[in-house]
Design a protein that fits this description.
Elements lengths: L10 H10 L19 H16 L4 H22 L19 H16 L4 H12 L6 H20 L58 H13 L9 H11 L4 H12 L4 H29 L4 H6 L30 H17 L3 E8 L4 E7 H14 L5 H21 L5
Antiparallel strand pairs: 1-2
Length: 422
């Protein structure tokens, strides 16, 4: 995997390190010797993907809320039955520890999905009934269902009127540096930066100093990098870099498979997996809230317009190309900060913290690129996504690096305040 010299300055390694700094005080509990099949938590995460993406086709900025709601409710249910070894996220229903964890996981995930996707009620109910049929009927199953229903109800209530799908749209500018829609996409996701976070106190608590000034040398350096390597017909981008850009751009996010893969490969039990998924998914959701709040605040133009209109930026080190086109389709929201690096920094930082190491082998397949990419470190994946957004011609390096920092800061806040051992 290719990485730029900035990695040697520790930007992304610092993003991973926020979790590792507290790892010595963390616990994931005893690891079973073997796992015959994926845990209930992993199984229901895959079922959630079916509803959220395979059927509903929610975009990444919408998916994050849905997954966070599911995994937060699942975590509270499993944590309650386990005797509350960790801080509850919202609630900890009374439990004896004899309740069926599998039934609780199924009920909590199912009820949240039903609230999110009433139009899928028939298929969701069929999948739920089929899963419950694998659990022996009786008081333990019923008690597990009751606990799952309670944690789902708490989650659903907590997200009522949370600002999701609100009326906000990004301002369409006409001055140098101001964002405007890139054909053929439009204007979407303005509400995300105003949605109530799951954990952090404020959407704007990690406000950055913003994009590089248009007339600065730093701006010109980023401009010329993305102009050259991110062009549709770039002569410097390699075939592997082109494939990586598409792999990371896949709306069927490869992070889903990565989380399920490491949970299964490490034989996490239901409590361990529930905590890992909840930590990662809620951190991802809040990282996007903070990131989109930045997008709305700074309203920075994408490389598409920055390069085509460079004769207006006042920087003698930039040269306009009115026909420049990026390798990837530009998403319908501003450049700064990068949503994908915010999200991936939260994912990889959480996993590094949870497993107490940056060293982990994992891979995932992308249908969009029709390829599998493999990594040996969580930081390696984060390094690649930062570069991949530049290779795709849709982000500047500054937007990517600052996005990764936001994801790291959200993860650090989560580690300090949520899901801690009791």
């Amino acid at each position: 995997m290719t990485s730029g010299p900035w990695i040697r300055r520790g930007v992304v390694r610092a993003a991973i390190a926020v979790g590792l700094a507290l790892a010595l005080t963390a616990t994931i509990g005893p690891v079973p010797a073997a796992a015959a099949q994926p845990s209930a938590v992993v199984t229901w995460n895959s079922y959630a993907q079916i509803a959220i993406w395979d059927v509903a086709q929610q975009g990444p900025h919408v998916q994050s809320r849905s997954f966070a709601m599911v995994q937060g409710a699942v975590y509270d249910a499993v944590n309650a039955i386990a005797g509350k070894p960790f801080q509850p996220y919202l609630v900890a229903p009374a439990a004896t520890g004899t309740e069926s964890v599998e039934a609780a996981v199924a009920a909590s995930a199912h009820q949240v999905l039903m609230s999110l996707f009433p139009g899928q009620s028939a298929s969701l109910q069929a999948r739920y009934d089929q899963y419950l049929a694998t659990i022996p009927n009786g008081p333990k199953r019923q008690a597990g269902i009751a606990i799952g229903n309670q944690t789902a109800a708490a989650m659903i209530a907590s997200r009522q009127n949370d600002g999701a799908f609100g009326p906000q749209t990004f301002a369409v500018g006409s001055q140098p540096g101001q964002w405007r829609p890139v054909p053929p996409t439009g204007n979407d996701g303005g509400w995300v930066g105003f949605m109530k976070p799951f954990m952090i106190p404020s959407q704007s608590m990690f406000r950055t100093s913003g994009p590089n000034p248009l007339t600065s040398a730093a701006y010109a350096k980023d401009f010329n990098e993305v102009k050259q390597i991110g062009a549709f017909d770039s002569a410097t981008r390699t075939a592997d870099q082109s494939s990586a850009a598409v792999w990371w751009h896949d709306r069927r996010l490869t992070e889903w498979e990565i989380k399920r893969q490491v949970a299964t490969n490490k034989n996490l039990n239901n409590m361990q997996a529930a905590r890992m998924f909840a930590m990662a998914n809620l951190a991802e959701a809040d990282a996007l809230v903070a990131c989109y709040n930045e997008k709305y605040f700074w309203n920075d133009w994408r490389p598409y317009h920055a390069i085509r209109l460079a004769d207006t930026d006042g920087n003698p080190a930039t040269v306009a190309d009115p026909n420049w086109t990026p390798w990837l389709t530009t998403p319908p929201f501003p450049d700064f900060t990068s949503g994908h690096t915010c999200y991936t920094a939260a994912t990889m930082g959480t996993l590094a913290y949870f497993f107490k190491t940056d060293n982990m082998s994992f891979s995932a397949f992308s249908p969009a690129s029709n390829s599998t990419r493999s990594f040996t470190k969580f930081s390696q994946a984060l390094t690649e996504v930062v570069n991949a957004r530049i290779w795709g011609g849709i982000h500047t390096r500054h937007a990517d690096v600052q996005g990764a920092k936001i994801g790291a800061l959200v993860t650090s806040y989560m580690i300090a305040h949520h899901f801690r051992p009791r």
